[in-house]
Amino acid sequence: MIGVLVSILLIFADLRTRRNQLKYGFEVPPLYFFIAKQVLITFAVLGFCYLMASYKGIPNLLVIMFPLVAIYSFITNQTVIGRRIYALGGNEKAARLSGVNTQRLLFFTFVNMGALAALAGTVVASRLNSSTPNAGEGFELDVIAACFIGGASASGGIGKVIGAVVGAFLVGVMNNGMSLLGIGIDWQQAIKGFVLLLAVFFDVYNKSKSS
Questions:
Q1: What residue spans define the domains of the chain?
Q2: Per-residue DSSP letters for 104-127?
Q3: Global pTM?
Q4: What would you report as the CA-atom Rg of the chain, rounded to the nearest whole angstrom?
């Protein structure tokens, strides 16, 4: 029931955002892409809630992740600094000419990413019961693929926190599935690279089609 309620709230929020963007003449993704995204998010939320209901409870990692997702979703969607970050990602020169202090904003954005990277390193070290400098090696492709699968744009200025989380879940499912099938690590990297290439291709195609 919680999964259904969360799914309905997410769909309602996305519909309201899309309606407001259309009202003010902003560029929006095609309708089929929007519907496919909502279906994937709904399946991901319901599947996650089913797994949690059939397991021993919520892992400690999710206790950390849920507040972070809620906080950063609020910051990016409802605050001035969030709008400025989107503007900086979309067109740095235009943001600077609009009065945004792009150098300071870029500095604090990277400071924030450093803090999140430190938190991620702490979580990985706690899971491994040790700390090694190459513990996160090879995660770069997974992270980039999760962002693009979740709706981020190669040209910048587009994307949502919840979309990146859903993309990370899909990449995790893909990794587990390939490991269970006994696919070698080299082929796993090639397959993930191909999925990332498809995500970028669809993004560029939709951009060129809209323009």
A1: 1-56, 64-133, 138-211
A2: HHHHHHHHHHHHHHHHHHHHHHHH
A3: 0.69
A4: 18
> In whole angstroms, what is the distance from residue 182 CA to residue 101 CA?
50
Q: Structure tokens of 115?
A: 């803090």
Report which residue type is found at 110.
F
Q: Where are the alpha helices (DSSP H) in the chain?
A: 2-23, 31-54, 60-78, 80-90, 92-97, 102-128, 139-149, 161-180, 185-210
d(CA 198, CA 204): 10
What span, in angstroms and rounded, lies between the C-alpha atoms of 131 and 125? 5
Reported as a single tens digit per residue, the pLDDT across 64-99 is 888 888 889 888 888 899 899 988 888 888 889 888
| DSSP state, residue 134 | T
- Residue 79 carries which DSSP code? S
Rounded to whole angstroms, the Cα distance separating 112 from 127 reads 23
CA distance 117 to 112: 9
Q: What is the dihedral of CA 138, 152, 198, 136, to 10 degrees?
A: 10
Please say whether the beta carbons of 183 and 192 come within 8 A. no
Tokens at 185, concatenated: 């690590």
Question: What count of other Cβ atoms lies within 10 Å of the Cβ of residue 124?
Answer: 15
* Alpha-carbon gap, residue 120 to 71, rounded angstroms: 16
